[in-house]
Description:
By secondary structure, the chain is an alpha+beta fold. Among the domains are: 126 residues, no CATH class; 86 residues, no CATH class; 35 residues, no CATH class. It contains 17 helices and 14 strands. The protein is extended. The two termini are 48 Å apart. It is found in: Nucleus.
Amino acid sequence: xxxxxxxxxxxxxxxxxxxxxxxxxxxxxxxxxxxxxxxxxxxxxxxxxxxxxxxxxxxxxxxxxxxxxxxxxxxxxxxxxxxxxxxxxxxxxxxxxxxxxxxxxxxxxxxxxxxxxxxxxxxxxxxxxxxxxxxxxxxxxxxxxxxxxxxxxxxxxxxxxxxxxxxxxxxxxxxxxxxxxxxxxxxxxxxxxxxxxxxxxxxxxxxxxxxxxxxxxxxxxxxxxxxxxxxxxxxxxxxxxxxxxxxxxxxxxxxxxxxxxxxxxxxxxxxxxxxxxxxxxxxxxxxxxxxxxxxxxxxxxxxxxxxxxxxxxxxxxxxxxxxxxxxxxxxxxxxxxxxxxxxxxxxxxxxxxxxxxxxxxxxxxxxxxxxxxxxxxxxxxxxxxxxxxxxxxxxxxxxxxxxxxxxxxxxxxxxxxxxxxxxxxxxxxxxxxxxx
Length: 436
């Protein structure tokens, strides 16, 4: 009897398909990165890698010889709310109107649909926005250890040997680098060459100018609400008063009723002392009325504009020091701001903040003493809010996972598996046989 076998051409494994290669080379396997660049960016602009002043690792920047340096800020949706992006050359209406100018109506719809099909769908809705970055913050960490006047090439020579992108920056943007260094360095002219020396006074002056410019444009509402308004708000104190009233109820005995004068005298004797009240207990009964509690709220005073301006200035300076200035220089700048000879006098603000801290401690203590029902009377309210927010996010995540489950998975979870063997028990390795 003839033996029949499967044809090799029908095997889905041996024959490679072009669709498999196309799927492997799909852009979703290696997703594209999307950058939003400034308008009218010239072709001479380049992506370069420079070391951020607050990060030892190199980060991507965009350098334009005409407009300056740009840093890329990543914008992405929260993980609990997944999104995707669709990129198309033109909008459908605009594409149809654009094509209709050159083609007849029958071909316009076809061309418009083709132009939309040439778009790209990004699985993760992430993109990078080019934001202006001051070149002075890039050069600042490179020249802090030099106390002598030196040319710009000598100051950056060692760093340019390690980073070729920094050399490109100096070669194509030398004028911008010199202008940035002149804002935080002392300069002298030695012949045809300009020499630089690091100056902390100029660094402080540069930061104050940036803070003033940020305050003139206005702080973001969320930033001002959290770090300015709430920081200067005085706690609401409640003063609790208790008043106890005593009422005397006159009862007549079966004996002969006294006249009005005797009643007045006995009533006056009742209120004189508790001993006299006890002696005539058969004729008078005392009842203590319910305690009347009155709570008066101390309204916090309005914040003066001077304190608001000082708090805004300190907030902006702290943000600049934390985000763009190296730690060693930032600590020295903070010490200079706290000294007596500081260009900005923060003494009124410090006094107000210390008084607010004392009021908050007093309010917290009074609340913990008066309210015995609180299990966590000494706990900070912000910690409780953070815990509640974390719990809410966890509940949303669990709800999202439950919605993503199929009906079959939900049904399997309800099955009683007690007493059943696990799948791993069927694939366990048999024990080795003993040799007798």
